[in-house]
Amino acid sequence: MARYWPEPAWTHGTPARTGVLLVNLGSPDAPTAAAVRPYLRQFLSDPRVVEIPAPVWWPILNGIILNTRPAKSAAKYATIWMDEGSPLTVHTKRQTKLLAGYLGHRGLADLRVDWAMRYGAPSVPDVLKRMKADGCTRILIVPMYPQYAASTTASVLDEVATCLARWRNQPEIRYVRNFHDHPGYIAALAQSVRDHWMKNGEGDKLIMSFHGVPRRSLDLGDPYHCECHATARLLAAELDLPEDRWQLTFQSRFGKAEWLKPYTQPTLEALARQGTKRVDVLCPGFPADCLETLEEIALECRHAFLSCGGKEFHYIPCLNERNDWINALSGIVRDHLGNWLSRPAAAPQDLAASVQRARKAGATC
Ligand SMILES: C=CC1=C(C)c2cc3[nH]c(cc4nc(cc5[nH]c(cc1n2)c(C)c5CCC(=O)O)C(CCC(=O)O)=C4C)c(C)c3C=C
Ligand SMILES: [Fe+2]
Ligand SMILES: [Fe+2]
Fold it and tell me: pLDDT digit of tens for each residue in the chain (365 aa)?
C-alpha cells in the first residue's frame, strides 16, 4: 500500500492555482525488451485492461507473455522511435505545451497545465503530487481518449482515485469523460482529411480505424463501441461522404478472444482482393500518433493491403499538434473548468502548521 509518496503540504503563501492534467496511455522508456517488459507488466496487470481473474491470468502473463512479447514489441517500437523518444510521449508533451499557450491567450495564463502517463513515466501519482506542491487546489483530469472505454478512461480515473485515497487534504477534482462528438474535435478530424485530399487527391474509400476492445465489454455495457460509431458517423457527415465511401474498423486485437468487429487488417485485405485500388486510413480514436498507428497501420496494414493487390495506401496522421485540434482541446478544457473560471481557487493552507502555530499561541483546541 505504500506505493506512493506521502502527500505534499499546501503551504501558506503559495498562490492558489487550478491545474489541468492531460493523461495518455504511456510508452516504454526505450525500444528495448528490457524497457518494454516492466511497461507491459504494469499495463497488462491492470484489471481494467485484462478482465481475467488473477489466478488464471498471472501465470499466463508471467510465464508466457512477459517472456515472449517484450522482444517482439521492442522491435516494433524501434521502427517508429523518434530522436526525442516514443512518438506518443513526444506528441503528448508538445500538446501540453501548446495547450498551455492557447489557454494563456484566452486569459488563463495562470493555469498549471501538465501531462502524465497511465503506464510508465511520468506517473499519474508523481505528477499529481507535484501539482499539489505547486498550489493546485483544483485539478481537471483530461484522459486523452475521445471515446470512453473502461479499459482506458476508467483506468485513468482509478489511478487518480487510488492516489488521492492516500491523501488527507485532497484537491477538488473534475474530469473529462469523453469528447467523441465534440464539434471542434470532429471539425479538426475532417480538416485533416481534407488537407490530405487537397495534397494527394481522394481515395476510393476512407477507413476509420479505432483501437479495439474485447467484444465482451460491449455486451457488459461499455459505451466505447457506440461512441466510436458516433464519431465515425459525424465525421462522414462533416465530409459529406456517402455510405459506400467510408467504413469503420477496429484494430490492435490482443489475445485469442473475439474483439469488436470488423477487424482492420482483414477488412483492408478483403477490399484489395475485391478490387479497391486506393484506401485512405485515419485513426480518429488516437489524438496522438503512436505504435498502434505508425507501426500497425502505416507499416503493417499498408504491407497487407498492397500484398493483396491494392495499389495505393495512404495513412492520414493523427491530430498531433494541429492548430485546429489544440484550439478544440482548449475549448473542451474551458467547458469543463466551468464555474472554476469565475470562482477563485481556495488559498492553499498547511493546516497542520496552522494548528501548531495556534497551539504555540495558547489555543486549547
Ligand atoms: C485508443 C484507445 C485504446 C484502447 C481502448 C485500448 C485498449 C486495449 N489495449 C490493449 C493492449 C495493448 N495496447 C497497446 C498499445 C496501445 N494502446 C493504445 C490505446 C488504447 N488501448 C495506445 C495509444 C497504444 C500505444 C502505446 C505506445 O507506446 O505507442 C499495447 C502495447 C504495445 C504492444 O505490445 O502491442 C498493448 C499490449 C488491450 C488488452 C486493450 C483493451 C482491453
Ligand atoms: Fe491498446
Ligand atoms: Fe498493436
Answer: 445 567 888 877 788 899 999 999 999 999 999 999 999 999 999 999 999 999 999 999 999 999 999 999 999 999 999 999 999 999 999 999 999 999 999 889 889 999 999 999 999 999 999 999 999 999 999 999 999 999 999 999 999 999 999 999 999 999 999 999 999 999 999 999 999 999 999 999 999 999 999 999 999 999 999 999 999 999 999 999 999 999 999 999 999 999 999 999 999 999 999 999 999 999 999 999 999 999 999 999 999 999 999 999 999 999 999 999 999 999 999 999 999 998 878 777 767 777 778 888 887 66
User: Which chain residues have CB less than 5 Å from ligand 3, an ion?
Assistant: 252, 292, 296
Query: Span 183-316: which CATH code?
Result: 3.40.50.1400
Does ligand 1 have an atom closer than 6 angstroms to the CB of 88? yes
Judge if the beta carbon of residue 286 lies within 6 A of ligand 1.
yes
Residue with cell 485532497: 170
ipTM for the predicted complex: 0.95
CA dihedral (46, 50, 56, 57) positive or negative: negative
CATH 3.40.190.10 is held by the domain 17-179+323-341? no
Q: Whose CA is nearest to atom 3 of ligand 1?
A: 211
Establish whether residue 217 lines the binding site of ligand 1, counting it when its CB lies within 6 angstroms of any ligand atom.
no
Ligand 1 contact via 69 beta carbon (within 6 Å): yes
**Does the annotation flag 292 for ligand binding?**
yes
Radius of gyration (Cα) for the chain, nearest Å? Answer: 22
The answer to whether the CB of 251 is under 6 A from ligand 1 is no
Q: How far apart are CA 286 and CA 297, in angstroms?
A: 12
Report if pTM > 0.90. Answer: yes
| CATH 3.40.50.1400 residue window(s) in the chain | 17-179+323-341, 183-316
The alpha carbon of 19 and the centre of ligand 3 are apart by a number of angstroms equal to 32
Strand ranges (E), the chain: 17-24, 112-117, 136-143, 172-175, 205-211, 246-251, 278-282, 312-316
Whether 313 contacts 207, CB under 8 Å: no
What atom of ligand 1 comes closest to residue 51's alpha carbon?
42
